[in-house]
Amino acid sequence: MRRAPVTPAALLDALPGHGPAVLARAPGRVNLIGEHTDYNGLPVLPIAIDRDVWVAARRRDDQQVDLANVDPAFEPRRYVIASHVPASPPGDWANYHKAAAQALVGELTRRGVAGLPGGAFRVAGRVPAAAGLASSSALLVACGLAHLGLAAVELSRSELAEIFARAERYVGTLSGGMDQATALLARDGEALRIDFFPLRTRPVPIPAEAAFVVAHSLERAEKSGAARGHYNQRVTECALGCAVLVRRLGIAAARLGDLPAPHAILADLDHLLPEEAGRAALPALTGLAGDELGRRFLPAGTELADPDHFHLRTRVRHVLSEAARVTAAEEALRAGDLRALGALMDASHRSCAADYGVSTPVLDQLVALARAAGAFGARLTGAGFGGAVVALVERGTVERVIETLDREFYAPRAASSEARLVVRPAAGASLEHVPG
Ligand code: NG1
Q1: What mean pLDDT is reported for the chain?
Q2: In angstroms, what is the span from residue 407 Cα to ligand 1's centroid?
Q3: Most buried residue, 2, 51, 115, 160, by CB count within 10 Å?
């Protein structure tokens, strides 16, 4: 049975105690194009979606956090605020609250502002989890915004995007900053081009006839599970690929996004980078001694899918070509050319699958079904390894795409109709102070 949606008013009513409260909202996101580029310092082009996490909160007089979720699958949690909050076991939902709180304690201390108060927090989420729709970041951002509201401290949205992006690494993923920036800075009806290091954003209007269908593969892309090692592996392969290029070309670059003349590098990649490298080959390839290599690229405690073996050429090829596709996609959107945008999304999916190794046969199947039903283009969205695809569809074609997906994919699997959604570009997070 479907549970009735919980209203923000009911969430406020569920708070213990009396007096003023705050109500925070943060949306999930669908990345239109620019996958696995953010942590490389290269651009992304997501939309925030009309599915959000709501958090109501009221201040406590002590340093305790009392956390509860309307979904009984997420059990209540309590912890004490500190500059180093011990993490709950991997996958525990409280870790996203802890991540935000620990980061805010650090930030407020750095600014010489009085500490972060304890509080009661009541949470309701409508972003499908483990679907590549950034539900974890929506939870972290909504909890963090609510907590700042309790502390009565204001920080700019851009500052918060950077603080919360770093904060999410608390859960052990070497993640980039796309999700938190989208949740905080997106604008209603528009896509957001985001550049990193330093963070910069610019809205990109979306033509009225464009619609977005998100279809879940029914494979959970759980970054607290196996996907974390695979995600971190890609981050490390890119960093190593960059280090090899730095040595081969005699240039300075901290990450792939710093490389000069990426088009020329892309054209010559077969000569510049080996396809693969074992760990033993890395000192010769990078010119770095083993201990420096370890410290910079393979720190202890970072979970990797295969710590002895790295793909270099294909990973770098995906990232550099994907960055060029983001720029072309922004131009296509501004020109209202949905056909061109769709073709770029298709190319992005092929690159994610063949070069980056983050697609699955089911994601490929969903992309093919959406294309066959008339979508302009379709691609996996988010980290991959399961999760969802996004299809760019003309408004008049949405029904046909949904019917095809239901008939060919969801009905035979007896899946819930919530497995596929039509999403619209929504505004970023909000915070409201509710008088007592
Ligand atoms: P999802 O799909 O929400 O887990 C992850 C990263 C992003 C980005 C994409 C791939 C987190 C919180 N988010 O998103 O920063 O790197 O993968 O483009 O890890």
Answers
A1: 95
A2: 30
A3: 160
Query: Cα–Cα distances in Å, from 96 out to 52, 74, 195?
Result: 15, 12, 24
Which ligand 1 atom sits nearest the alpha carbon of residue 173? 19
Q: Residue type at 260?
A: P
| pLDDT band at residue 330 under the 50/70/90 scheme | very high
What letter represents residue 193's amino acid? R
Taking the alpha carbons of 129, 342, 43, 156 in that order, is the dihedral positive or negative? Answer: negative
pLDDT of residue 6: 82
Give, for ligand 1, the residue of 40, 171, 175 to mutate: max count of ligand atoms closer than 8 Å to Cβ. 175
Ligand 1 pocket: which of 39, 231, 385 to mutate (most atoms within 8 A of CB)? 231
pLDDT digits 0-9 by tens, 357-394: 999 999 999 999 999 999 999 999 999 999 999 999 99
The ligand 1 atom nearest the CA atom of 29: 3
- Ligand 1 neighbours, Cβ below 6 Å, are 35-36, 38-39, 132, 134, 136-137, 168, 173, 175-176, 178-179, 223, 382-383
pTM: 0.96
pLDDT in tens, 256-286: 999 999 999 999 999 999 999 999 999 999 9
Gap from CA of 109 to ligand 1 centroid (Å): 28
Transcribe 95-153 into DSSP letters. HHHHHHHHHHHHHHHHTTPPPPPPEEEEEEE-SPTTSSS-HHHHHHHHHHHHHHHHHT-
Whether the pLDDT of residue 215 is over 60: the answer is yes
Which H or E run includes 161?
Answer: helix 157-167
